[in-house]
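Lab notes, practical 5.
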Amino acid sequence: MEKKILFIATLDTKNRESDYLVTAINQIAGCRALVMDISMAGHALGQADISAAEVARRGGSTIEKINNSRERAKITGTMISGAIAIAKDLLAERKIDGVIGLGGSTGSLMATDVMRALPFGLPKVMVSATAALPGLATRYIGTGDIMLFHSVIEIAGLSPLLKNVLERAAGAIAGMVNVEMLNKESLQSTDRKTIAMSQFGICEGCASAVMRKLEAKNYDVIGFSAAGVCDRAMEEMIAKGLFDAVIDLAPGGVGEHLMAGMRSAGPNRLEAAGKLGIPQIITPSGVNLMSPRKSRYKPDYHQRKKFDLDKLRTFLRLNEEEIILVAQEFARKLNLSTGPVKVLLPLQGWSSIDGPESPIYEPETDYLFIENLQKQINNSLVTVKTFALNLEDETFADHIVESLLDVLP
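Output from the prediction step:
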């Protein structure tokens, strides 16, 4: 069957370029493009399958109000809301197999907002002249599985170079839509349970051992780097019901959010599984550390015990006040859980860089976390257990696997 691709652009500013990409999708790539116009300054009737007027209407406004408004942020939000509503309907009705966008800064921001509202696994390509600008790439992608296609040259005119860029972009989305989309139904169609697992470089040994042991028992383990973005995405995917259980090896994003660290995973970290009631196994890798931007160091940060992970990232030890605060936040979140939670706490270091021989080893401060967590937990579904091990010990991985198997239905 002919694959259908939703094409999103501002036709008032990218008309010729959009027409060329649509033609490439239809004729070169052998798919059918469904054109959505998200223009705000004007619109061309008859040139889009979904007009800017329809997008504005679905966003709760009119195209006349959009065209005449000077409240840029407001009308942008309106058009994005309308485009998301339409895109979700098209997907639910099985009328699209992928999405591609074309634009500069504004067009890219708007189109990728729509893409991020669509599920993981749906092919998404953003052709952008501003994909490499500092700060924008991460804003475009966020927690979405979006492919950024950097045009390098400005998307203006139809030079041989730009035509080649657009033709390759058409080929990219065409190739992607010919791969079957992975979704909740296809995951649940097998007899293998799927486990989400947060991990990070400083607990890589433990993560690898846990994954190996569970795969040997016929489980699928999906890893997420706990650097602040992927573990935030993990929470979103957990909330959509994609997993049967969670092993949270590296939930340090909770404390990083409180301390405004670079690994902050947002205010909702460590909450989705509890709300759904699926089993959770939690360990404290990295919870006793933070990674603030060096440009935002407080005076006392320079005196902290530290570990330079690389030339860009330095971990600082939490002080007593901070680690108690983090323990309280963990307890608050875990007390809301409606399913079984097992917190496994090693007493001889919480990562590969944290142990008796490490300059950042500080068990007395770690114990404050343990003590305050136990004191604050008031949910009978949550149990806390300590082990005279380092988190990276092979035996600790065995305890994680055994604990999970104890609570999986």
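Observations recorded by the TA: Residues 186-407 form a domain with the Rossmann fold fold (CATH 3.40.50.12030). The chain has a mean pLDDT of 93.
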